[in-house]
Design brief:
Blueprint (H helix, E strand, L loop, with lengths): L3 E6 L4 H11 L4 E8 L4 E2 H4 L10 E4 L2 H7 L2 E4 L5 H11 L3 E4 L8 H7 L6 H4 L3 E2 L2 H9 L3 E3 L3 H10 L12 E7 L14 H4 L4 E2 L7 H9 L6 E7 L6 E8 L6 H8 L6 E3 L15 E8 L2 E8 L7 H11 L16
Parallel strand pairs: 1-2, 1-5, 2-4, 5-6, 6-8, 7-8, 9-11, 13-14
Antiparallel strand pairs: 3-4, 9-12, 10-11, 12-15, 14-15
Helix pairs in contact: 1-12, 7-12, 8-10
Bound molecules: NADPH dihydro-nicotinamide-adenine-dinucleotide phosphate and N-acetyl-L-glutamyl 5-phosphate.
């Protein structure tokens, strides 16, 4: 059986580790290049959890070595760093799935919320990696901009109801995330003592994921009111979404009809929870209507559907494989 050689740059990070775990077991992707910023180590030294599971060298990231070792590469790198790698990798003919925010937004919006963009050429053809919106485009993409975790949970929740929403009314997204969403670097907010037994909002209404949600839903930034909260959990994310709708309809039926073919969205009859999606690519969605107010609850694993398993689904589509191939679907329950 022919295999596709793939690489992971950013293998020492949280999403990098999740990518490795999926790729080690993937039937058609062969892990052929594994790198971080310093290299000079092995996988088992880097991630003790992979000891006696899979071993390989971890190299200092290098464009030429990466290009000669694989056909497709996953970049699990910080914003701004990712585009420094994308530019030469694409010019050497590699396919790239970028987990950062560098290719998710038009240049003007990106520069308003992040930093100056240094690779506008590739920005123009990058495809936003949400199959529920762009499945056909993803099949022929050379560069995929993997969505942010909060936008994934919010967009999948709201999308089925966009045609029934009262125009120009607020889309309120009240979201909770586990701490792994912040990556492995230390910060005051993610310090154990600040997170443990605690709960707080951060960047209310001005978080960089608000424009991503607005742009992909095709609404104005001012219509999206997004407030993320940090909760004392390692992984998981729930978005509680409130929108006003105008016509009389059965919200559950709308959701079921919209996602009847979706492999990685589950429509739920009871309010969703984080644990039931932990370690999987599922997005679980619940909806409840009271008069013209709709409450939508959408749960994902931030490291999986919000990052790494979504990235492998996108790579499957780019390579013409079944999008479900090698994707974990049994949650870490209990
Ligand atoms: N965590 C999450 O839930 C989600 C994260 N993302 C995005 O995915 C990307 C990765 O996130 P995450 O895994 O959490 O981040 P981490 O901070 O956990 O890991 C970052 C990785 O990038 C590597 N790295 C940093 N700079 C360089 C460089 N110049 N050259 C090579 N490697 C470098 C680090 O290597 P080293 O160890 O050597 O420093 C490390 O492996 C980010 O853009 C993030 O925003 C997207 C959705 C969800
Ligand atoms: C807890 C926490 O800090 N979460 C991150 C979001 C997760 C993420 O990394 O998303 P991007 O891919 O867009 O960077 C944040 O709020 O910025």
């Amino acid at each position: 059986m022919s295999v596709t050689k793939v690489g992971v740059i950013g293998a020492s990070g949280y999403t990098g580790l999740e990518l490795l775990k999926i790729l080690i077991n993937h039937p058609k992707f062969q892990l052929s290049y594994v790198a971080n910023s310093e290299g000079n180590t092995t996988l088992s030294q880097l991630h003790h959890s992979l000891n006696k599971v899979y071993e390989c060298d971890v190299l200092k990231a290098d464009i030429d070595e990466c290009a000669s070792s694989c056909e497709l590469v996953f970049l699990a790198l910080p914003h701004k760093t990712a585009m420094v790698y994308v530019k030469p990798l694409i010019s050497k003919g590699l396919k790239v799935v970028d987990l950062s925010a560098d290719y998710r937004l038009p240049q003007d919006i990106y520069e308003q919320f992040y930093c100056p963009h240094t690779d506008t050429e590739n920005l123009s053809h990058a495809v936003y990696g949400l199959p529920e919106l762009f499945r056909d485009e993803l099949r022929s993409a050379k560069l995929v901009a993997n969505p942010g975790c909060f936008p994934t949970s919010a967009i999948l929740g709201v999308l089925p109801f966009m045609s029934r929403r009262v125009k120009n009314t607020p889309i309120i997204v009240d979201a909770k995330t586990g701490v792994s969403g912040a990556g492995k670097k230390l910060s005051d907010n993610t310090h154990f003592v600040n997170v443990n037994d605690n709960l707080f909002a951060y960047n209310p209404l001005m978080h960089r994921h608000a424009p991503e949600i607005a742009q992909k839903l095709g609404v104005d930034f001012d219509e999206v009111h997004f407030v993320p909260h940090l909760v004392p959990l390692t992984r998981g994310m729930i978005s509680s979404i409130y929108i006003q709708v105008n016509s009389d309809f059965d919200a559950y039926e709308v959701l079921e009809e919209f996602y009847k073919e979706a492999k990685h969205v589950r429509v739920c009859k009871n309010p969703v929870d984080m644990k039931s999606v932990a370690g999987t690519n599922f997005c679980d969605i619940y909806v409840k209507r009271k008069s013209n107010m709709l409450f939508i609850s959408s749960a994902i694993d931030n490291l999986m559907r919000g990052a790494s398993s979504a990235a492998v689904v996108n790579a499957n589509l780019m390579m013409g494989f079944d999008e479900d191939l090698g994707i974990p679907n049994i949650a870490y329950v209990p």
